[in-house]
Design goal:
By secondary structure, this protein is mainly α. The chain contains 18 helices and no strands. The protein has one domain: Growth Hormone, Chain: A (Up-down Bundle). Helices cover 79% and strands 0% of the residues. Keywords: Membrane, Transmembrane, Transmembrane helix.
Length: 414
């Protein structure tokens, strides 16, 4: 057996081609709704709500709320993934997580203190990551390795589509926060109902063997002992940390750093920048995924896109203007879209064990959520201690460049 065969997990269940197309569209919808919540609420509604409560300390408060809530995201994603592996089903976790998120978002929209906002966002992060863990596991469950690039590209379109829709919804409802939160809850619940209603689970025929409690943590993190998986984890973590250190504070950057045209409010600027960034992201997601499949090359796409993401952060430093921000958003979208699409394909090809796909993808999602724990603290500390947003752009860019280097040691994927 070749090395490639050893490291590439076989899909546990492979759907017929017509069903696979339908499944991919449902996954696109599910991921789009999820990213609409993360981007619309996290980037617009939550910062707006915090600024209304305490405008003087908004940067520090957003850092604390974002960081603490990401602890819940980091914990719940892999735990939910492991539990869905054990039950052999995804749909109950997808639907349950979405409905619980609807309740959490409704609560978040009804509160008016910093403490309750923090509690509400923690609840939303926890329940959305239950949903995310199960949705993420569907690709290695049911899509064969040869089609992972296309599948990952389609799933990756959830960020540009969901991000654009989410920010547009949020920008229109920023003055009516309770309504905005309810709309986002309805979006994710509706997507979950469609996916679980139209795509039946294909349960594992034999349950996983019982594992003693003392061995569960070691088993849970065992994927990190795999050389290729570990470096994919490191690269993803660095890229996400660099990205969210900047993007998570974009509303405040537009308020306090960028020279906006007269009459253009920061929330309106977000509604323009997001489609620019997400449109570029959509193009690079599809092109990157298709070309990486056609050429059977993944690392070059991941490395170059991470390097580009690092370089373009210098644009708002050199030109803190509206045209400069438009240029940065477009190029950053191109870089991040290609990275996430192809890197997801890389990860599915270096999973150590196909039967532990959801658990190991949940571990990888620590590289998504974990840096978001650090990013708000890092960003608020940099802005406060180093005197503004220029150092934040430079540090975010440096982290992305390190993420580009981390792809080089991976041996099992070209």
């Amino acid at each position: 057996m070749s090395t490639d065969e050893l490291i590439q997990p076989k899909a546990t269940h492979v759907a017929h081609e017509p069903r696979r197309r339908g499944l991919m569209l449902l996954l696109l919808l599910a991921n789009s709704s999820m990213l609409a919540v993360y981007m619309g609420v996290g980037a617009v509604l939550l910062p707006t709500q915090i600024a209304q409560i305490d405008p003087g300390d908004k940067v520090a408060i957003l850092g604390i709320v974002g960081g603490v809530s990401s602890v819940f995201a980091t914990a719940f994603n892999p735990i939910a993934g492991a539990l869905s592996d054990r039950t052999g089903r995804r749909n109950p976790w997808i639907l349950g997580g979405a409905l619980a998120s609807l309740a959490g978002l409704a609560f978040l929209g009804s509160v008016r203190t910093v403490l309750l906002v923090g509690i509400g966002w923690c609840l939303v992060q926890a329940t959305m990551n239950v949903y995310q863990a199960a949705v993420t596991a569907v690709v290695p469950d049911r899509i064969p390795p040869a089609r992972r690039g296309i599948a990952s590209a389609l799933v990756g379109l959830g960020l540009p589509i969901g991000g654009t829709v989410g920010v547009l919804i949020a920008s229109q409802t920023a003055g009516r926060l309770q309504l905005g939160y309810l709309v986002f809850g309805a979006v994710v619940a509706g997507a979950a109902l469609l996916l679980t209603g139209l795509c039946r689970d294909v349960p594992r025929r034999e349950p996983l063997p019982s594992v003693p409690k003392r061995d569960r943590l070691a088993a849970f993190l065992s994927a990190l002992a795999n050389h290729d998986f570990r470096w994919a984890f490191i690269g993803r973590a660095l890229m996400v940390l660099g990205y969210f250190s900047v993007v998570g504070y974009q509303l405040y950057i537009l308020e306090d750093h960028i020279e906006l045209p007269k009459g253009l409010a920061p929330t309106e600027a977000m509604a323009i920048l997001t489609p620019v960034s997400m449109g570029a992201m959509a193009v690079s997601t599809v092109v990157g995924g298709l070309l990486s499949d056609r050429w059977n090359r993944r690392k070059v796409f991941v490395g170059l896109s991470a390097a580009l993401a690092g370089i373009v952060t210098t644009i708002p430093v050199i030109s803190p203007t509206w045209p400069g921000m438009l240029c940065f958003s477009a190029l950053n979208g191109l870089a991040f879209g290609c990275f996430m699409a192809v890197d997801t394909a890389v990860v599915t090809l270096v999973l150590p064990r196909a039967e532990d796909a959801a658990r190991d993808m949940g571990v990888l999602n620590i590289a998504n959520a974990g840096p978001q724990i650090i990013a708000p603290f890092v960003a608020s500390a940099v802005v406060t201690a180093l005197g503004g947003y220029t150092p934040l752009f430079l540090i975010g860019g440096a982290l992305s460049l390190l993420g580009a280097l981390a792809i080089l040691p991976i041996r099992g994927v070209r």
